[in-house]
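Re: the 515-residue chain
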Amino acid sequence: MAGRARRVLQEEDHGEFAEDLGDGSDSDYSDEEPSPQCDDNDDSMESEDAESTSNSSGIPQYYLGKDKRTKWFTEMPSKDKTRQKNILTETPGGSFWVTIFVWWSTNDKNNTRDLWATDGTAPGYFRTVMSENRFRLLLRALRFDDSETREARKQTDKLAAIRDLWEDITAKFLKMYRVGECVTLDEMMLAFKGRCSFRQYLPMKPNRYRLKVFALVDSDTFYTSVLEIYTGKQPPGLFQADNKPINVVKRVSASVLGTGRNITMDNWFSSVPLIDELQHKHRTTVVATLKKNKTELPPQFVNHKKRSMNSSLIGYNDGKVLVSYVPKKNKCAIAISSMHTSGAIDSGTGARNKPEVITYYNSTKGGVDSVDQMRGNYSVARCSCRWPLTVFFGLLDIVGINSWIIYEENTGQTISCKEYLTGIAKDLTKPWMMKRIKVPTLSPDLRIMIRKFTGIRLSVGNVMSETLLKLCKYCPKKKYRKTTVECGICQSLICGEHTSRVCTECFARINFLEE
């Protein structure tokens, strides 16, 4: 249903496996540990690492890794028992949904001043809620913690300025929805150019300066379940944590460990020891790509210069399937899976002869990227020099997407994200408009727009009301002209000179035109 409808986003962003995977150069991080490199031209190494004992077809019984210990067998192991992994004991779905006001995420205008323009080009909805000066004042004064205790908390936590709000919202993400059988672990970026100690510089990205956030997303519905913002090396204290990939994976995926789910991740997070630990200790499988410098990889799987296009090498080791696929000349993609039991070729790929491990990775790797795309389509983000505000905008974007997903799951309806966010904004601002229209000093044009958006209709009986004698609003004070006539739109007192009579038929036509 909703997941199938949104699958189009994923297919548009993620093309062929040959374009997305390869030599591992897409990693944007510099905090990884150095590891030995292999020489693709060292033919003597291949002959030494390959087992001399071969079967009748000349294929070796196993390939030996560069660490001289890891053996990848060429024959699929026998199925002597049913595996317990990937057996879910929970039903995916949501318990209830939340909504939050989205200022202008569904509007095409990016400049704040354009949204309150008075030249007729701005949508009138924003002016009916509050004035531009009021909005800018609230935005400048917006804070998320106690400023008096912030300096003390910053001694042990770099995220002190928004820690309470961050943990409160991310905890609700886990409480409201249970992800499906496959999740995607990846990083999402929040563009930010201001001063921040944990800001990242990525020269190959469109926005070079960003804040990095690790995310765990449902691969089918794109619901964001877990978020962890990267703060670098934290001061000693409660929030100090190890940022090595193996520890990041275990922290972010803690909510799904032991539940029989599968995690899809890229080559920055994955490693053979991590996959073994998740498989044997936490009953969780992994489908991922591997960098070529891993010592567990046999040289034959890394070398691609003597292999033909669309060819594959398959290896088996302790419940894992290792695949080396050549999608095009001088390029080799390496994937590993503890979920699959064989390296069978996917018949749907035709002449490309892609293994099922690779096609499954391609179909589930784009969960976080799809969320980034939806965030970009309808975002509340504004240019800011304060990083807590940038993080807050990112949270609002994800809250809107998650609530939309839960709404579709619970109601069975299929609506666009823009339609959903627009409805939320109208429902949450309508009570305030009903209160604001009673302000005596409100301008008549705003009253007309509020009646148009809220559906309030005037009645003929409200045009005249018996009140105490008061001065006419438009007559000069020296005339001292009192009246009991009240305007039916702005409730201003007007004398006979400033009153226009309208018949009931024309009055009904005015209501119709305003609607």
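The longest strand covers residues 182-191.
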